[in-house]
Amino acid sequence: MRILVIEDEPVLALHLQQTLEAAGFAVDVAYDGEEGWHLGDTEPYDAAVLDLGLPKIDGVTILQRWREAGRGLPVLILTARSRWSEKMAGFQAGADDYMTKPFEMDEVVYRLRALIRRAAGHAQPELNCGPLRLDTLAGRFSLDGVPLQLTAQEFRILAYLMHHAGTVVSRTELMEHVYDRHFDNDSNVLEVLIGRIRRKLKADLIHTVRGLGYRLADEVGA
Predict the structure, then answer these.
(1) Model pTM?
(2) In whole angstroms, what is the distance from residue 186 CA to residue 42 CA?
(3) Given 87, 119, 151, which residue is the final one in a domain?
(4) Which candidate, 145, 126, 131, places its Cα nearest to that of 203?
């Protein structure tokens, strides 16, 4: 899953990036509102973390522009502004969740996982596909009840397929949602990683749809 962080405080932005990457996300960071609005308007993110007090373009304006343009990505606002009127302005602009600084980094991770899961149409925190299970809150896979050992890249690929089980995900879509904007998407690394995941699953759960992409068996329950 790919996250956009828009935060003008460099230390906080770095801390968020490191925390989210350690939790299994691919992360892009923008340090002002203009760059953040542009990235959110042109790149396919699974969620955004948005500060309100930004240089060049403020967070509420960014959110309003995204929503007016039909950008439906879940947005978690992080801000030092704690007055109810300011929170209301964020929600009226289209925010999905709101946290006031200072905050716990782990809570940011849990809230983002919940936002992404619900945006994909899953009500419960646990997703199942045959012997495969994903605890979306803990960020852990298990196979037949045994923890599944995955690298960070393998986890992102399988998690994206799990959230969209039963639908064909193109190679381009998968690459766009599991890697940041600096990744070389002409690489054959995706095919290599899909092969490794298949061997670890020991079950025919990931199907190749020739000329279209990949599909995780649609036996997912929530």
Answers:
(1) 0.89
(2) 19
(3) 119
(4) 131
